[in-house]
Automatic annotation (TrEMBL):
Transmembrane segments: none annotated. This is Cytochrome P450. Heme binds at residue 407. InterPro entries: Cyt_P450, Cyt_P450_CS, Cyt_P450_E_grp-I, Cyt_P450_sf, Cytochrome_P450_Monoox. SUPFAM superfamilies: Cytochrome P450. Residues 1-24 are annotated as: Disordered. Its cofactor is heme. It comes from Methylorubrum extorquens. Keywords: Heme, Iron, Metal-binding, Monooxygenase, Oxidoreductase. It comes from the Bacteria.
Amino acid sequence: MLQDSKPASQFDRPVHTDTSPPGPKGWPLLGSLIGFARDPLSFLTACSRQYGDVVAFRTAGQLMLVLTCPREIERVLVKEHQNFPKNEHFWRQVTALFGNGLLTSKRAFWQRQRRLAAPAFAGPMLVSYADAMARESMLTAEGWRAGHVRDVHADMMALSLRIAAKALFGTEVEEDVLVIDDALNNILGELASRVVRPILILDAVPLPGHVRYRRAIRRIDEIVARIITERRTSTAAGNDFLSALMRARDEDGAAMSDRQLRDEVITFLLAGHETTALVLSWTIHLLSRHPEVDRALAAEVGDVVGQRAAAIDDVPFLRFTEHTITESMRLYPPAWAVGREARCDCQIGGFQVRAGTPILISPWVLHRDPRFFNEPEAFRPERWHHGLAQRLPRFAYMPFGGGPRICIGNRFAMIEAVLILTTLVQRFRFVADTNSPVSPIPSMTLRPKGGVRVMVERREINGPYG
């Protein structure tokens, strides 16, 4: 049995002193490109299990490093993070979308933007966002009909986008949300293709996907620019994300420019809404296949919330609900891989690593590692009940990334997921659609291929009306 209380160093495999890390040789010229592109999740898992904590493989001449050693991951993401910046290959392809927002900015400017954005995710702001979370969740549940099969991934994408828009702008933006939703679908489709693209193709090249991508960005830009202009001329004090960003000042008393506001709004709109939607989609998928967990979840919701509307004050008492979401993110982390790059020649795990080498850290692989988790393929929310998170090595579990660049909205996302799941479980149970198998597709995020289709059946929760 796994001894979760062991110190992190005891989980590490022995440090090597060879010059080059081990790994698959692959094919001439192509290296391991075909295997990696065909099934990245299985490929990375097999590499880790066969070759150890530090693995090297080539894709079309490019050497890549895979890390599954918690100690070395901490070094890359925290202790020496200045020497391991984000890998440039993918982020160069999304500059037109994210601009210089928190996902893409670097060093001093990133630190400034992170400080300015932090109050928008502080406790008082989360309380104001929670009202929209609960209200929009109830509207979604009211639109479901018992006995019908639904694609809950599509439902969760629509719901989380409405919540993100309300949190961002604080006003009624239903018509804008419809335009943004259509534009984001085009953007996400193009980003998915770019993740597996081995070479950088400039946006200016008029490929059909590029044309749709640029057009979609322009549509969102027009909406965001209009709202920023309206807010600049308004005398009303807003209690939303955009207002918090506009009030923020750096140490020199300077505020964000319209362009900086635009970049952070787009970053939150895209990254924020899809992450929560994926967490909930995978959680519902798992609940539909594990009725015993669903029953335990419903029992807690009945005890804590009963038949009244869920509120942010309930979240600390919905421990099994939170652990269910935590376990879902272990099995299906939305950010299935984190990319970094060695800025200079260095040693990692006793191996020589050259400057410019891309480094891949995969939560998918880490979260299913039997060194860290008993029965790693099993869905067992109760594994988190007795302090497992505190006993695990740091970075054995990292659904929101880690280090200084850990997701700034992680608490927002967890509160949102708990409130939405509670609201849905109050009213419905989920039954797997055996005619619609679900499998993960690792694109920019870990998306369900073809959606998540489940039958929703009416549930009556026993408990107080409040």
